TrEMBL record:
Keyword DNA-binding set for record: yes
DNA-binding region range list: 37-56
Gene3D superfamilies, per the entry: Homeodomain-like, Tetracycline Repressor, domain 2
One family name in Pfam for this protein: TetR_C_14
Domain HTH tetR-type: 14-74
InterPro entries: Homeodomain-like_sf, HTH_TetR, MftR_C
Protein name (Swiss-Prot/TrEMBL): TetR/AcrR family transcriptional regulator
Membrane-spanning residues: none
Annotated keywords: DNA-binding
Keyword DNA-binding among record annotations: yes
Species name: Saccharopolyspora halophila
Length: 202
């Protein structure tokens, strides 16, 4: 094999972030999060440490490569919700639709096992999921007249937490059916209702 035919490492023109995440989660599952270095990830993926660090400022960022795609799927599903459908039913249907296609992509249930057991990853979750929450909060604000931006964000955060908990239960085998069915059941218990004007909270 000539030098020009040799596999190229270090500076791919387009980094396959999903492939990096899949390989990395496999390492984290086998060895533990703290035991896996950038060099280990480089050897497992064929991507240089320099390139990895250029694409992922922190090792924990690899855990959340699927969130942008999940956010796009959520946005598309929300845009297709009928205007006359109640906001809570719309949110439930859109979230379930957004996770029906490979909800754990790219790392499968390895994602659940690692994210739930590593403090650094759990601590980075709120920032990672903020675009997803903002997308849902914007929808809720448009569909629930009178709700404040802060309340819409709080409600969206509740939906995110419930969805994540349902996926955890599914990944751990504590939920019947697939991931979408687990989320559907959990989210069915949530409701968005305008507070009665006569209630005095003072």
């Amino acid at each position: 094999m000539s030098s020009s035919d040799a596999p190229q490492r270090g500076r791919p023109s387009v980094l396959d972030r999903a492939a990096v995440a899949t390989a990395t989660f496999r390492l984290w599952t086998e060895r533990g999060y703290d035991a896996v270095s950038w060099r280990d990830i480089s050897e497992a993926t064929g991507v240089s440490v320099r390139t990895l660090v250029r694409h992922f400022a922190h090792k924990s960022d690899i855990a959340w490569v699927g969130v942008p795609a999940a956010t796009r799927r959520l946005r598309d599903a929300l845009e297709n919700m009928p205007a006359d459908l109640p906001v809570d039913e719309s949110a439930r249907r859109a979230i379930v639709a957004s996770i029906s296609d490979d909800p754990m992509k790219p790392a499968g249930t390895d994602w659940i096992r690692v994210v739930c057991t590593e403090p650094e990853l759990a601590g980075s979750a709120p920032a990672a999921y903020r675009p997803w929450i903002d997308e849902l909060a914007g929808f809720i604000a448009r569909r629930a007249p009178g709700i404040s931006p802060a309340a819409a964000t709080a409600v969206a955060s509740g939906y995110q937490a419930a969805t994540f908990a349902a996926l955890v239960a599914w990944g751990e085998g504590r939920s019947a059916g697939d991931a979408a069915e687990s989320a559907d059941e959990a989210l069915g218990w949530l409701a968005v209702r305008r507070p009665a004007e006569e209630i005095n909270l003072t």
